[in-house]
Amino acid sequence: MGEKKQFMTVIDSKPRLLNVPVQEIVKYKDLIFTLVKRNYKIQYKQTILGPFWLVFGLIVNTGIFSLIFGYIGNFSSDGVPYVLFYLTGTMGWDYFSGCFGHNKNVFKDNAYIMGKVYFPRLVVPISNMVYELIRVGVKLIVTLIVWIFFFARGEALFMGWWLLLLIPTIFLCGLTGTAFGMIISSLTTKYRDFSHLTGALMSIMMYASPILYSVSDAPAWLKTVVNINPISAYIEMIRYSITGTGNINPWAVLYSIMFTAVLVFVAVIKYNQTEKTFIDIV
To answer: Is there a domain that residue 84 lies in?
Structure first.
């Protein structure tokens, strides 16, 4: 009779806006894996090749970039084989854009789940980020295989400890895309205009990133534009970690990291604020 009940989960009507329930998220790790499997089934259901389409698309896109921008356009690759240059350039961007694409409508796409059961809402964008991380992991394996081929031919360098920066840099690309997507999703629950602007904004960011060209031969004004883009420094670091070429600006790297930190801060606040009322609007 005198025993007190201990509640494991407390649902507060006024939770803190800057709240990342790490313990709860860890407890719901099975749900994260379930949502990752759901994303996989949605994308590759009723396909014969399944995830091999990812490798096929990577090879085709790299071949097109190498042909048009490399052999025909004669864009500089800093002495790196075109195939390897474009593989390393697209890796970080693909993770950023993939995380953004999966999270830009996270409230709208998951309203049927969020409106029925309780779970930490941050589980959904985290699961999307994990799913895209698996995809970029496949691309990384393909890139390293290509690097080994050119290294054996003496056309690529071994960067040693610089390779240790590869994983955290790729992670920062995904974190930036996830935070950006969470902010857009929070805004589009009330104002659908933002969903029409994201396509143009992503195109501008892509062409303002050193994916298809080398910054070292770019004019001064273009270098300024590239450095303003927070993804550019990450792409240059990924490329340098694998090929040993690129233009790493320490101030640009610091700016990108600070930009990502602020973006995540704003995203968590806006996401937590929106999750309380979005179900009545969507």
So the answer is: yes
Structure confidence by residue, pLDDT tens digits, 6-31: 555 555 555 565 677 778 888 888 98
For residue 191, what are the domain limits?
Answer: 50-280
First to last CA, the chain: 46
The verdict on residue 5 lying in a domain is: no
DSSP state of 153: T
Contacts of 236 (CB under 8 A, 6+ apart): 210, 215, 246, 247, 248, 249, 252
Residue 78 falls inside a structural domain: yes
Domain count, the chain: 1
Rounded Cα–Cα distance for residues 179 and 185 (Å): 10
- 37 within a domain of the structure (yes/no): no
Kindly provide the residue ranges of all beta strands, DSSP E only, lying in 145-250, ordered along the sequence: none
Lowest-confidence region among 56-65, 175-184, 268-277: 268-277
